[in-house]
Amino acid sequence: MRLTVAMCTYNPDREVMLAAIEAIVAQITEVPSVEIVVIDNNSDPSLAERGYLSDYPVRLIRESRPGLTAAREAAIDNAQGDVIVFVDDDNILGRHYLRTALEAFASDPTLGLLGGSIVPKYSAPPPKWFREFEPWLAVRHYPSGFCLELTALPANPPYTKHFPVGAGFATRREVAVAYTCDCTETKRIEGRKGQELSSGEDLDYGFFVLNNGYKLVVTGALSLTHVIAPGRLRVDYLKRLASGSVRSAWALEEKWSPRFGRPIYPMLSMSLVETVARATVTAMLGLGSRRYRIKHHVYTTLTRLRIAAMIDSN
């Protein structure tokens, strides 16, 4: 089997990105056939102009459409491998990551999506209140022996607790191509774009994999380090992330609950009265708590979406 490692990037930190590239390059001798594709999603100046990658065995592709979803589509369109491993420009792959991923797909023809442990690397220790929000930054703590296999949507919420996120996830190219075609016929869930922050496209892909009869696996045998910039610990960033997460959950609910025949996000079924009440309480608690200031943003975003839906229905 052939392997494509795809990195989508926009105005990357040079030092962090090159550490990510070097971690990939260090493993390419462990797999029989591999290519590294870097999608430059409108960096200014471009990566070609910066010359960061001139000494590395990578294929550099410029994607002018803004947003992570567009960049990943470009990676899928240009990939030559049977399996694609998506790596962000701040992901440092652990030992044998590529070989382990490729062996998993070679041994199981039903495997459609594979993810692993994502360990954060902070420039300074985060405050204690931040731990609750770590999953929003694609942090996944799994012990080395952990393995979860899903062939259908779990029976109980939260349904997406162990879904792989885009940092380091691997998939068959044929599944990825089918997914992009499906998005043109149904609803395209956007990833990060400009100031809009969302992880909806990763979860959307997981729903697609399960809905089409493929297996989704998360294993601690795969591990990478996620270098987290200091700015991502700020309350204003997390508030934007909260808003993006709620909006993407709303879009995913509209897209997938009819297909699965049940609600995907039970929180979205709360009445307007309850969301307003929670927004009010978290606003009061947020006067003395950064944690509740972020939670307040969740409920105010949900309140706005519910009001807009009520208006549209009338």
Question: How would you summarize what this structure contains?
Answer:
With 314 residues, the protein is an alpha/beta fold. The protein has 9 helices and 9 strands. Helix 6 runs parallel beside helix 7, helix 7 (235-260) crosses helix 9 and helix 8 runs antiparallel to helix 9.
Give the SSE map.
Layout: E1 3-9, H1 14-25, E2 34-40, H2 47-50, E3 59-62, H3 68-78, E4 83-88, E5 91-93, H4 97-107, E6 111-122, E7 147-150, E8 170-172, H5 173-185, H6 200-211, E9 215-228, H7 235-260, H8 272-285, H9 290-313
Parallel strand pairs: 1-2, 1-4, 2-3, 6-9
Antiparallel strand pairs: 4-8, 5-9, 6-8, 7-9
Helix pairs in contact: 6-7, 7-9, 8-9
Task: Write structural notes for this entry.
This protein is α/β, with parallel strands linked by helices and 314 residues long. It has 2 domains: 3-231, Spore Coat Polysaccharide Biosynthesis Protein SpsA, Chain A, CATH 3.90.550; 236-313, no CATH class. It is 40% helix and 19% strand. It has helices at 14-25, 47-50, 68-78, 97-107, 173-185, 200-211, 235-260, 272-285, 290-313, and strands at residues 3-9, 34-40, 59-62, 83-88, 91-93, 111-122, 147-150, 170-172, 215-228. Strands 1, 2, 3, 4, 5, 6, 7, 8 and 9 form a 9-stranded mixed β-sheet that branches. The protein is globular, with a radius of gyration of 20 Å. The mean pLDDT is 92.
